[in-house]
Specification:
Number of strands: 25
Bound molecules: D-xylulose
Number of helices: 20
Largest sheet: 6 strands, mixed
Structural class: alpha+beta
């Protein structure tokens, strides 16, 4: 008789801005056996962070309390343990919100190695923090430090060629520099700086975990040719930085085995291997089933995000996009577009349309929109970097005066994705399929425009929680001997009847792209 192996569970964690979530997959029969989430604001009100970060930071600072992430992790594990038998988990990995950093003193190395199940993680690790709070990715306080780092190494082009991105406010190197400048004594007391991902991985293994190339590349400190710390960038950021950082390692590295703390407290088996953690976006690349070149992911949200596995390492010559390590090997690109759903909503609202009328507008207008175009930026954009507050138009004098609702709606959406196509050309991708995710991804009319502009089929996946799923898949691939493609075939299936194929002639949007570029 065929026996289903009992040790076939893989756990994937996702420590994000507003919550800590996890799921457990059973790779023997292809199911998700448990899912849980702890919302920081609602379930840990004692940290006074209703949206996961401490409100009203000064000068653009946005920080969170790392002890909150530890308390959430414990609540999450308790919840998972009530849903399934955690002793069946034989592979673990995870992901963290990118760029955020945790500052630890030299007691860290001792405390992390001697955790006692009688006390909580936050009780034991509070004294190891050399900086009480952690700057996270929303922090925009470091413009001066970005300029200083760029000037020290020879300009933004050099930072970009070395690290895959120009110096960016939310990236960790500029954040570390600001800490060093504002509180040199506390910087001096800092023996280790971790990312959110490597911090949590360290806690799980009860040791000091490496930083992976996916999350590490979001620091402006890792050289993307060597996939290791870049001496010039370290020196430009803060003194003696190398010895305060863990090692950089590839995504298929075992960080260690699960610490006894979790065996005793939550019923895990002894010595479960923990695969190195990564950033949330690299993890989502895996969880969306797009870890091999040829597929790209477009996530439609407040900001729209575009990411894809890259066949080769190239940096964006315009300095708007980012290169990160791909947890499945090689590299990935990521590019953010600030004018996402808020721009779509602004056009809908101007004409008092509901979302059905918004979708109907595409049936009433042809591809290419009879030459009517819009650069749909209602607020300053970062891809490309422009400081405008109102859309630029072709075919109408001003947005306020635009009368034809249907043409304006098509112009907005075509403008968004023509811009996305043009701005991401540097990645040299030949997509066969675009995986669409996020709030507006259900909208077939938007999906059709994307299929036509990228000349690739668009699919929506049945998965939710692609960050945690990606982590569980990575753990299963690394520890349970499953291939990523096998796991993708099981866990990353398109929603039934969700595929949209290109309909319009490639020439229509090739011509539209030219005139859009001229307009911009
Ligand atoms: C990516 C970025 C965010 C964070 C939080 O560069 O800043 O997507 O990873 O999700």
């Amino acid at each position: 008789m065929f026996e289903v192996p009992t040790m076939s569970y893989a756990l994937g964690l996702d420590s994000s801005t507003q919550s800590c979530s996890a799921l457990i997959i059973d790779v023997a029969n292809g199911t998700v056996v448990a899912e849980a989430s702890v919302n920081f604001g609602a379930q840990l009100p004692q940290y006074h962070a209703p949206s996961g970060f401490i409100p009203d930071g000064k000068d653009g600072e946005v920080h969170s309390d790392p002890l909150m992430w530890l308390d959430a992790l414990e609540m999450l594990l308790k919840d998972l343990g009530e849903q399934c038998d955690l002793s069946k988990v034989s592979a673990i990995s995870g992901a963290g919100q990118q760029h955020g950093s945790v500052y630890l003193n030299d007691q860290w190395f001792y405390e992390i190695d001697t955790l006692s199940a009688d006390r909580t993680l936050s009780q034991q690790l509070a004294r190891t923090l050399s900086r009480k709070t952690s700057p996270i990715w929303m922090d925009g306080s470091t413009s001066e430090e970005c300029q200083e780092i760029a000037a020290a190494v020879g300009g933004d082009d050099v930072v970009c060629a070395k690290s895959g991105s120009i110096a960016i406010e939310r990236f960790t190197g500029p954040q570390i520099r600001r800490f060093y400048k504002n509180d040199a004594a506390a910087y001096e007391q800092t023996a280790r700086i971790h990312l959110v991902s490597s911090f949590l991985c360290s806690v799980l293994i009860g040791g000091d975990a490496p930083i992976d190339t996916g999350d590490g590349a979001g620091m402006n400190l890792v050289n993307i040719d060597a996939w290791d710390w870049d001496a010039d960038l370290l020196e430009a950021s803060a003194p003696d930085l190398l010895k305060k950082l863990p090692k950089v390692a590839q995504g298929d590295t075992t960080a260690g085995t699960l610490n006894d703390y979790f065996t005793k407290k939550y019923g895990f088996a002894a010595d479960v291997p923990v695969t190195i953690f990564t950033g949330d976006n690299p993890s989502s690349l895996v969880g969306m089933g797009a870890s091999q070149p040829g597929k790209l992911v477009v996530s439609l949200g407040t900001s729209d995000t575009f990411f894809a596995a890259m066949p080769q390492v190239v940096a964006d010559p315009a300095g708007c996009g980012h290169v990160f390590g791909n947890p499945s090997g090689g590299s990935m690109s990521l590019q953010c577009f600030v004018n996402g759903s808020l721009a779509r909503e602004a056009v809908k609202d101007k004409f008092n349309y509901d979302w059905d009328q918004f979708s109907q507008a595409f049936a009433n207008t042809p591809s290419g929109n009879n030459g009517n175009q819009m650069v749909p930026f209602f607020r300053p954009e970062i891809s490309p970097r422009v400081e405008i507050e109102a859309p630029i138009l072709k075919g109408s004098d001003s947005f306020a005066a635009w009368q034809d609702a249907d043409a304006a709606i098509r112009a907005c959406v075509e403008g968004q994705f023509l811009n996305m196509k043009l701005r991401t050309d540097w990645m040299q991708l030949q997509p066969e399929v675009v995986y669409l995710t996020g709030g507006a991804s259900k909208n077939d009319a938007i999906a059709q425009v994307i299929a036509d502009i990228f000349q690739a089929k668009v699919q929506r996946l049945a998965v939710s929680g692609s960050v945690g799923l990606g982590a569980a898949m990575r753990a299963a691939a690394h520890t349970l001997g499953k291939s990523i493609s096998e796991l993708e075939a099981t866990f990353c299936q398109p929603e039934a009847n969700s595929t949209i194929a290109p309909q319009s002639d490639a020439a229509v949007y090739a011509k539209a792209a030219e005139s859009f570029d001229a307009l911009i």
